[in-house]
Design brief:
Radius of gyration: 22 Å
CATH topology: Rossmann fold
Shape: globular
Strand content: 5-15%
CATH superfamily: HUPs
Helix content: 40-55%
Structural class: mainly alpha
Largest sheet: 4 strands, parallel
Strand order of the largest sheet: 3-2-1-4
Order of helices and strands: HEHEHEHHEEHHEHHHHHHHHH
Number of helices: 16
């Protein structure tokens, strides 16, 4: 099949998803926008069916996503809100106690990939998306049309996927409670179960299946669940009509975003022609530098990618904002009496991982969690 034929097939599939949304919600739709593929494809589909959504974008005035969103909205006559969460004023440290409790209940205890600690900006932003009956759309899982794992086009294994994408930790951070072999074995079993595989040796299209059925289920699924606590919200790429038959798309179409760019172009050539934060029009040629960089990233051996996290996080990031001691000490014991049994706190370099461990400590102290001396954990946090 040709690139155009595959693009047309999946454009037709998406009609089943976007037409009812556009017809029923029209101008009430609020679209999370960026300079990339997923939100552009959503916008193209909404405009195709006559909806005129309002857009919002995150960042400051110098951010590339903001610059591109402003350019497109001005040209297309669409309303745009720029949201800079960094401008949220810091709280009095004593107020932080109540703010953290509000976050605890709003986010059902934990968020996807980020701590629950902030000054309220995230919670208030998510609530504001639904003002006046607006219904947000989110582009999570849009990478079903791209090579999400950045792995080469050849048979692989669950072990390679784990090393490539699920090894974002430094073993020195863990105490003896963590057993890496147990972790990797449990992850492999969960992957096999998710795609119905009877072996850890995978075809390349089975690797692609893991993106919606494993990553999508446990990451995007949780993200959707949290967001829908604040009001009705659509995740179009989670729909079966969108996901169906994407695992067996030829990888050379997925690579470099060729397919997704072509899909946008088949729906709306004007939208496809605007710049992107990749440095090129989404349905245009890919610059040599970008192609070479992507090739190197894709061809890196899984064993090397397993080491990349610890190699690039060798210095401790500052604990600032809501993670600063003057705030965090109001809600947890900074000696980490519970989580210290699992983690060597002083060895944790990334601020986000520190915040995630602090979130676990907060939950543990609040709900009297106990960790036995012989307990083994099978996941890195």
């Amino acid at each position: 099949k040709t690139l155009d034929a595959v693009a047309d097939y999946h454009v037709t599939q998406l009609e089943q998803v976007f037409e009812p949304i556009a017809r029923n919600y029209g101008d009430r739709i609020r679209l999370s926008f960026s300079g990339g593929f997923d939100s552009r494809l959503m916008l193209a589909n909404l405009l195709k069916f006559g909806a005129k959504p309002s857009l919002f974008v995150y960042g400051d005035s110098q951010d590339e996503d903001v610059r591109i969103a402003r350019l497109i909205c001005k040209a297309e006559g669409l309303p745009l809100e720029v949201i800079d969460k960094s401008l949220a004023p810091p709280l009095d440290p004593e107020e932080f106690i109540g703010e953290t409790e509000k976050n605890l209940f709003a986010f059902d205890g934990w968020k996807v990939e980020t701590p629950i600690f902030d000054f309220g900006a995230d919670r208030k932003d998510r609530m504001s998306r639904h003002l006046d009956g607006q219904v947000p759309l989110n582009g999570s899982l849009g990478e079903i049309y791209r090579n999400f794992f950045y792995m080469p086009d050849r048979p692989s294994s669950t072990a390679a996927v784990i090393s490539t994408f699920y090894s974002r930790y430094d073993p020195k951070v863990f105490t003896s409670h963590f057993d890496e072999k147990t972790y990797r074995s449990a992850m492999a079993a969960a992957m096999r179960q998710a795609i119905g595989a009877d072996s850890d040796q995978l075809t390349r299209w089975q690797v692609e299946e893991l993106y919606p059925k494993f990553r999508g289920r446990f990451w995007t699924g949780r993200d959707a669940q949290i967001n829908q606590r604040f009001g009705p919200m659509f995740f179009p790429y989670l729909e079966h009509a969108a996901i169906s038959n994407t695992a067996k798309i030829p990888l050379n179409f997925k690579n470099l975003g060729y397919l997704q760019g072509r899909m946008i172009g088949r729906i709306n050539t004007r939208l496809a022609g605007y710049p992107s934060d990749y440095g090129f029009a989404l349905d245009g040629p890919r610059p040599l530098k970008y192609r070479f960089k992507t090739f190197l990233g894709t061809q890196r051996p899984a064993a090397l990618r397993k080491l990349s996290f610890r190699m690039t996080h060798t210095a401790q990031e500052p604990r600032t904002g809501a993670l600063a001691p003057e705030y965090l000490s109001r809600v947890i014991d900074l000696d980490f009496p519970i989580m210290r049994k699992l983690f060597n706190i002083e060895q944790v370099n990334p601020a986000t991982q520190y915040g995630l461990i602090a979130t676990l400590e907060y939950l543990g102290q609040r709900y009297d969690l106990e960790i036995s001396e012989d307990q083994v954990i099978s996941g890195p946090g």
